[in-house]
């Protein structure tokens, strides 16, 4: 199955959002505890003041599946509890495994599909529709979407002109978080360009701290690294072509991006634990080891999206003071803006399932989770003041201000077999490249072979 350009609404002028985000983060880099308290104290439009009408569903039972774990899962259960309170329905959270399409397939084959599933890839939504699993959203859910979401976020949840997905959660995947103490001790400055990033990395390394944690045990952060470099360097038109496999992974633009990545990945002393250590580092550890260890953390920087804050929260570091953030530097003429997200899709059509989708499309639901931190909503009617600290408030502000001006995660647009399966496809190919960053040609050949097979079969 190919990614259709009409499904992912994108524009070539991401410059404005990148500039806005850079300015926002600069303003909030030194946010104080007072600002943090102010952010959580001014919340309006919360669940207590309902803005969406829901039916009474006394006795109804629902299951909702997602791959979320830990604090993220706990926070989402708070949202589900509010839905239960308002409707009288009982909602059970079903932990899913990646790739979620395979998980759902086994559930459906066994006659026990969940009522709703949160799918992290537009490609997975299209597969669910093609397999006949996904059910269109009803009139009330569509009404909430049109009221609360930009056209771009509506488009990436639609297939064949019908609305199937509610993008309940978004992610800004163009951020690098850093240990303020390590940066200060090294005299390093927040970089604006890739060359600046290399300069800062060298300063950190010379100070005795390893520059980066890379979550190589999880393939998906490696795809995000690549996408930011590629979007900035090759530009949005090439990005869209590669996302749809209209150009091959053997294209010179891919060679250039991998060669650029190797400027960091190829320096084993720049990676916590070296390349072999990086390949054994899972995402949560990549974050926590950056913000623990006092003056000698295992790394000074970690790349990933706004959701990094959930894992920072597991340490004693405070966002805005101990843990700071800058936009992914410009590799080409423009800094990249890559977004991702999770969409609620109905698998068992019922009054209760439609009501849950409607609730998740409302600002009421998103406001509850926004207040708990580590979460970003594309819902433009969630009050910015709901986010618990100034840094997150500005990230949310920048996302809403962008409207449709973003590029969606490339691997999430791909067929699941290529862009979303552990140990296969792009995830595995980039892990192999991290293991041997000198083999650019070999990495390109493997990526193209796997992409051609997946796009050709639509799996």
Automatic annotation (TrEMBL):
Domain of life: Bacteria
Region span, Disordered: 32-51
UniProt key word Transport: yes
Keyword Transcription regulation among record annotations: no
Extent of the signal sequence: 1-29
Keywords: Signal, Transport
Low complexity composition-biased segments: 41-51
Gene3D superfamilies membership: Periplasmic binding protein-like II
Pfam families: SBP_bac_8 (PF13416)
PANTHER family xrefs: ARABINOSE-BINDING PROTEIN-RELATED, OSMOPROTECTIVE COMPOUNDS-BINDING PROTEIN GGTB
Record family assignment: Belongs to the bacterial solute-binding protein 1 family.
Entry protein name: Carbohydrate ABC transporter substrate-binding protein
Origin species: Streptomyces dangxiongensis
């Amino acid at each position: 199955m190919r990614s259709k350009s009409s499904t992912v609404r994108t524009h070539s002028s991401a410059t404005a959002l990148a500039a806005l985000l850079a300015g926002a983060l600069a303003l909030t880099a030194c946010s104080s505890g007072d600002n943090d308290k102010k952010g959580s104290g001014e919340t309006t439009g919360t669940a207590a003041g309902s803005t969406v009408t829901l039916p009474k569903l006394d006795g109804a039972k629902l299951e909702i599946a997602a791959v979320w774990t830990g604090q993220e899962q706990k926070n989402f259960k708070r949202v589900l509890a509010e839905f239960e309170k308002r409707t009288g329905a009982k909602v059970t959270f079903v932990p899913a495994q990646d790739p979620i399409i395979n998980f759902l397939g086994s559930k459906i084959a066994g006659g026990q599909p969940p009522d709703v599933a949160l799918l992290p890839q537009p490609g997975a939504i299209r597969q669910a529709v093609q397999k006949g699993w996904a059910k269109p959203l009803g009139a009330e859910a569509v009404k909430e979407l049109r009221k609360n979401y930009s056209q771009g976020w509506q488009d990436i949840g639609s297939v064949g002109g019908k609305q199937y997905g509610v993008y309940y959660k978004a992610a800004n995947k163009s951020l690098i978080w850093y240990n303020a103490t390590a940066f200060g001790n090294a005299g390093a400055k927040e970089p604006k360009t890739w060359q600046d990033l290399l300069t800062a990395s060298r300063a950190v390394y010379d100070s005795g701290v390893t520059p980066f944690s890379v979550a190589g045990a999880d393939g998906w952060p490696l795809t995000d690294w690549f996408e930011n470099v590629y979007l900035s360097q090759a530009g949005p038109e090439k990005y869209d072509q590669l996302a749809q496999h209209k150009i091959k992974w053997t294209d010179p633009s891919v060679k250039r991006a991998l060669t650029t990545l190797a400027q960091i990945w190829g320096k084993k002393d720049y990676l916590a634990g070296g390349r072999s250590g990086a390949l054994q580092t899972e995402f949560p550890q990549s974050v926590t080891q950056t913000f623990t260890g006092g003056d000698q953390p295992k790394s000074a920087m970690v790349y990933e999206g706004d959701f990094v804050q959930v894992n920072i929260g597991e340490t004693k570091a405070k966002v805005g003071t101990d843990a700071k953030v800058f936009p992914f530097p410009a590799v080409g003429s423009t800094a990249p803006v890559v977004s991702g997200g999770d969409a609620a899709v109905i698998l068992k059509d019922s009054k209760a399932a439609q009501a849950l989708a409607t609730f998740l499309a409302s600002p009421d639901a998103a406001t509850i989770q926004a207040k708990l931190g580590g979460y970003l909503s594309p819902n433009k009617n969630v009050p910015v003041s709901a986010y618990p600290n100034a840094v997150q408030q500005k990230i949310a502000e920048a996302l809403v201000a962008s409207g449709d001006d973003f590029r969606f995660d490339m691997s999430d647009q791909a067929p699941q077999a290529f862009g979303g399966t552990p140990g296969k496809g792009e995830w595995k190919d980039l892990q192999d490249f991290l293991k041997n960053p000198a083999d650019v040609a070999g990495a390109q050949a493997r990526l193209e072979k796997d992409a051609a097979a997946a796009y050709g079969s639509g799996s």
